[in-house]
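Thread amino acids onto this structure.
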């Protein structure tokens, strides 16, 4: 494999910057070596869907909306703004054993990162990327706008940039560089072949009006269609298989413990606001879905979901509200899948997600660690079928 290197000697650029800044930062040369792209060229779509064993077992006609929304490690309808030690996405399939699937990141808005970040799959940002620090992308880097780099970046495969590329530092691309704008570099930009121009074909996350799940409507449907006749009484609320509706958040929160022992869906009207930990336990082998028509806000540590880090599919959270949600100050851990396409998530401290996160905007100061589990994207009937065929 041969590489093209575009560079400017740093000392030479520094001297020119003192007298003629545009010499180093304005449309750096070398684009004459780029091969033009035909007018009818379309960028091949990278594999951005979950690649877990259970996901592969399911045929497309078996996948429902709640399963499809967890096909990325991180998917945002808005922007990603993080100052901290990094965004790390890793993947696993705990039900099916070790799995080669990757954790992909999709952002429909713009990305602003300060710190060192790693994404083991593809990184797709429709609105462009500003990065100060080191970024390591395992597969493809894809964006529909400009990329500004200050630091050292590595891309495992091709880089697709429908805009300008400005680099202060080094950028190693282990594939081709597709670029529609200008290239400016103070440092080295290494790639296999340069290809001039391409058309970005839409944002990565399903956030259109007809694509978003109407969580509030799903909650409203359960006012009359539910399994509340199976509910008991007492300080501990035990939920087995079924769908359960609660008109008031206080009916399921506070000091009362909710223990899920089967496959249960909990539908709650309104907003939930708690301080500290939420009192929810999902037993080994059980699965729970919490559907909230509004938002959930917390200040303090958040630990919600399965008692073990190895069971991400044991808990899924669906939020229908808009605005600020899941506000955390401290160290927060979440095990499961979060779907909140119109909610903004803010955190100060360390936010650890073992599963998948789908939200509107994500803003934080601290460490964001996401370990994707592809089992989240398989509906229950596929899980049952998988184990029947592997017994």
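Threaded sequence (391 positions):
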């Amino acid at each position: 494999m041969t590489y093209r290197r575009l560079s400017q000697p740093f000392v030479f650029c520094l001297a020119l910057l003192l007298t003629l800044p545009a010499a180093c930062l304005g449309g750096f040369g070398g684009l004459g070596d780029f091969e033009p792209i035909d007018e009818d060229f379309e960028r091949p779509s990278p594999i951005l869907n979950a690649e877990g064993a259970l996901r592969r077992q399911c045929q497309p006609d078996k996948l429902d909306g709640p399963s499809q929304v967890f096909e990325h490690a991180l998917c945002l309808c808005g922007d990603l703004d993080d100052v901290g030690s990094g965004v790390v996405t890793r993947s696993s399939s705990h039900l099916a054993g070790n799995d080669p699937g990757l954790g992909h990141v999709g952002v429909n808005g713009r990305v602003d990162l300060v710190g060192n970040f790693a994404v083991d799959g593809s990184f797709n940002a429709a609105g462009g990327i500003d990065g100060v620090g080191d970024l390591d992308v395992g597969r493809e880097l894809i964006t529909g706008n400009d990329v500004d780099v200050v630091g050292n970046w590595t891309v495992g495969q091709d880089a697709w940039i429908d805009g300008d590329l400005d680099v202060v530092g080094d950028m190693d691309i282990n594939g081709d560089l597709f670029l529609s704008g200008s290239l400016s570099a103070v440092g080295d930009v290494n790639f296999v072949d340069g290809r001039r121009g391409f058309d970005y074909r839409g944002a990565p996350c399903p956030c259109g009006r007809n694509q978003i799940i109407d969580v509030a409507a799903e909650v409203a449907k359960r006012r009359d269609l539910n399994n509340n006749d199976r509910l008991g009484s007492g300080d501990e609320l035990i939920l087995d298989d079924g769908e359960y509706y609660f008109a008031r958040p206080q009916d399921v929160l506070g000091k009362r413990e909710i223990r899920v022992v089967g496959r249960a869906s909990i539908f709650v009207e309104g907003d939930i606001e708690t301080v500290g930990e939420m009192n929810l336990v999902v037993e080994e082998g059980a699965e729970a879905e919490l559907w909230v028509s509004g938002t959930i806000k917390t200040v303090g540590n958040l630990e919600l979901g399965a008692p073990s880090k190895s069971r991400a599919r044991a808990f899924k959270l669906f939020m229908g509200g808009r605005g600020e949600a899941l506000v955390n100050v401290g160290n927060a851990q979440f095990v499961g899948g979060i779907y909140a396409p119109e909610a903004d998530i803010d955190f100060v401290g360390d936010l650890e997600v073992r599963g998948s996160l789908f939200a509107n905007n994500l803003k934080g100061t601290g460490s964001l660690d996401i370990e994707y589990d592809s089992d989240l994207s398989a509906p229950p009937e596929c899980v049952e079928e998988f184990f029947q065929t592997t017994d």
